[in-house]
Design brief:
The protein has helices at residues 29-44, 67-76, 80-96, 113-116, 147-151, 158-165, 171-176, 186-197, 204-216, 228-239, 245-254, 258-269, 272-285, 290-304, 310-319, 337-342, and strands spanning 5-10, 13-18, 50-55, 60-62, 102-106, 109-111, 123-126, 131-133, 182-183. A six-stranded mixed β-sheet has the order 1-2-3-5-7-9, with helices on both faces. The chain starts with a strand and ends in a 19-residue tail after the last helix. The protein has 361 residues and is an alpha/beta fold. Pfam families: ECH_2.
Length: 361
């Protein structure tokens, strides 16, 4: 276990709190193991009817994985790097298939790995402080932790847009995209949490009913149809339905307006290789089960730090912080189709795959 995850059971609810606020509750391997251990124990515990997960510190639910560890481990060829992703994706799967209501209080920053431990929740609750994104292409990665699967299930071509650009969403946009279920102002979320802790529950459905009722009182507080995604949806669906990244970038670059200019600038700053890999991932994921998509992501991650842009992207953003990554290759037209497809060639066969045991049951 780890000091960075606290667990307790009160009134029939298992409470998981990420307690690493100095790192915006970014996940370490020990934290992943602690969460997995608690969920496994609570799944069989008759005194636990639901699980609530939250982040400590008031700024973040979870800002992602520990990318500094990724950088150090990749340079050292540390086998714990591969182990981190195998165990993280297994945890993501466990949450999606959890037999009891699992509730994520997505207050503050929710990115990357934070999405992985929240998107499988029965209730995903956002606040006015929520800042949600899958920003992996900015550091030479791709939207993992099941990101291909859940982005591919957003309306229209929002999945391609969010995966390629890493755009940060507030509560209204998260609800519009189907990446959140309920909205509560942060003070009302605190009140709801106090109400949960103040009574005992005989079933998970009673827990959900209390939260649904609390959110109903604030339904007018945020309007999904008034967010950026709703406003730009026609443009997003037109541009991001294009057959390849070059066509997407050309279409956005030719369009007028601030949104198009900002979108084009974001795409130009990302890893050309990982833009193409991400587009392929999201489009493949539309026809995949969650289990197969997570296995595919582990295959992809195997290559990201073995000839991809992951080490360089993290160096530029989080280590040297010069924000001047030297992508290889530097241009979209220099990315060979064969290199993109190589990310989807599994290094494991059949039962040898680390996630071979994932089951939809």
């Amino acid at each position: 276990m780890t000091d960075f995850v606290t667990t307790e059971v009160v009134g029939g609810i298992g409470y998981l709190t990420l307690n690493r606020p100095q790192a915006l509750n970014a996940l370490s391997l020990d934290m992943i193991r602690a969460i997995t251990h608690a969920l496994t124990a609570w799944a069989e515990a008759p005194g636990v009817v639901a699980v609530v997960v939250a982040g400590a510190g008031g700024k973040a639910f979870c800002a992602g994985g520990d990318i500094r560890f990724f950088h150090q481990a990749a340079l050292a060829k540390d086998p714990l790097l591969d182990q981190f992703f195998a165990e993280e994706y297994a945890l993501n799967h466990q949450i999606h298939r959890y037999g009891k209501p699992y509730i994520a209080l997505m207050d503050g920053v929710v990115m990357g790995g934070g999405m992985g431990i929240s998107q499988g929740a029965r209730r995903r609750i956002v606040t006015e402080r929520t800042r949600m994104a899958m920003p992996e292409t900015n550091i030479g990665l791709f939207p993992d932790v099941g990101g291909g699967w859940f982005l591919a299930r957003t309306p229209g071509h929002l999945g391609e847009y969010l995966g390629l650009t890493g755009t940060v969403l507030g509560a209204a946009d998260a609800l519009y995209a189907g990446l959140a279920d309920l909205y509560l102002p942060s003070n009302a979320m605190a009140e709801a949490l106090a109400a949960l802790r103040g009574r005992s529950f005989a079933s998970g459905e009673e827990v959900l009913a209390l939260l649904d009722a609390a959110a109903a009182a604030h339904r007018a507080g945020v309007a999904p149809e008034q967010g950026m995604l709703a406003r730009e949806r026609p443009a997003i669906d037109g541009f991001f339905a294009q057959p390849d990244v070059e066509s997407i970038l050309a279409a956005v670059s030719d369009a007028a307006g601030d949104w198009a200019a900002q979108t084009a600038a974001a795409l130009r700053s990302r890893s050309p290789l990982m833009l193409k890999v991400t587009l392929e991932q999201v489009r493949r994921a539309r026809d995949m089960s969650l289990e197969n998509e997570l296995r595919m992501e582990l295959d992809m991650m195997h290559y990201v730090f073995r000839g991809g842009d992951g080490i360089e992207g993290i160096r530029a953003l989080a280590v040297d912080k010069d924000h001047r990554p030297r992508w290889q290759p530097a241009r979209l037209d220099e990315v060979a189709r064969e290199r993109v497809l190589s990310f989807f060639d599994s290094p494991w066969r059949g039962a040898q795959h680390p996630l071979a045991g994932l089951s939809a049951g």
